[in-house]
């Protein structure tokens, strides 16, 4: 069963009266590094997928994760029909894969070697750092995006380094050396 989240509206001045300029908002957001995932699903026997940098954990009990999709996404009309989806956490050498799944108007899976159908019928990408298979838990319209929450039903990891996105560029994580104890 898909739940629709309730949004609590605040009182007081309109949020639009307090909004920051769009260019400044984007500039501030660009300072935040985020992981890069490809959300995949299968709808009517056809695989669909898109690159997302807004993925995050929501809850440990129950295990919930979320991501946002732009309302203008050409993939969302198909993706929203899927009961299950996979979150493919891209490895640091998968920049090209991130770019493929961000493009419009192409067969993304034709340009994606080594993917396979996993449990629950979801497409799983090869060479990723981790994957989470999810059942759609809830969906909410928020601003110019759609919030999708998934209940995690299966996971897998490889231990590889994740691909990161920062200031409109892809990169990899380099840990600081640990101080000896």
From TrEMBL:
UniProt xrefs under InterPro entries: Flavin_Rdtase-like_dom, NADH-dep_flavin_reductase, Split_barrel_FMN-bd
Pfam family, one: Flavin_Reduct
Domain of life (superkingdom): Bacteria
Residue stretches making up the Flavin reductase like domain: 29-172
UniProtKB keywords: Monooxygenase, Oxidoreductase
Record's protein name: Monooxygenase
Protein family per UniProt: Belongs to the non-flavoprotein flavin reductase family.
Entry annotated with the keyword Kinase: no
Source species of the chain: Acrocarpospora macrocephala
Any GO MF annotation of the entry: riboflavin reductase (NADPH) activity
Keyword Oxidoreductase part of the UniProt annotation: yes
